[in-house]
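User: Hey, quick favor. My workstation is busy. Could you predict this chain's structure for me?
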Amino acid sequence: MVWGKRSKLSFTKIFSLLLLLGGSVFLVLGITGIWTQHVSVGKSLQEAKTITMVNSPRPKAEIETTVDTFVPKIGQVLGLISLPNDKKLPIIQGTETPQLKKGVGHYSKSSFPGQGSQVILSGHRDTVFSHLGELKKGDQIRVKLPYGSFTYTVDHTTIVMADNQEVIHPTDREELVLTTCYPFYYIGNAPKRYIVYAYPVKD
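Assistant: No problem, here it is.
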């Protein structure tokens, strides 16, 4: 009987230690992943600031880019998006995992600012878009690209299921759409999407 109790006690201790060890490893991996992405976003941000500055050291052909000649490649840094909290974030062409690790992704099948249609930008809820839920009606969002700067005013927000196909749709006016996973603090693959709709500021 004594041996049985000791064996049960030992198993309980070992199991508890394994759980603690597994949790610690998970935590370390999570922190490492976030830090790695933070570094990657920082590098993209510096590049974005360079290509959008007035006296940019870029080649003349790039400086003279217009909305009609702007054809970036997947993974290319496009410019900057500035949120009301003064946070500037780099915009990357593409919305797959490699691009979202570098910053805010531009959905390649959507339009660019100045083209009069839907502009879709996506980002991770635990990094670049961690404060997206703080945006409210009337807040201004600025997008700066090599060919110009654009200001939008937040109109409304909504929450949809992850498989909702109605977010992407034809529009008769320019519309900036910011998307991220929701709930913001959900562990694992979040089942919903948080959407922000904003429209160009009228001159």
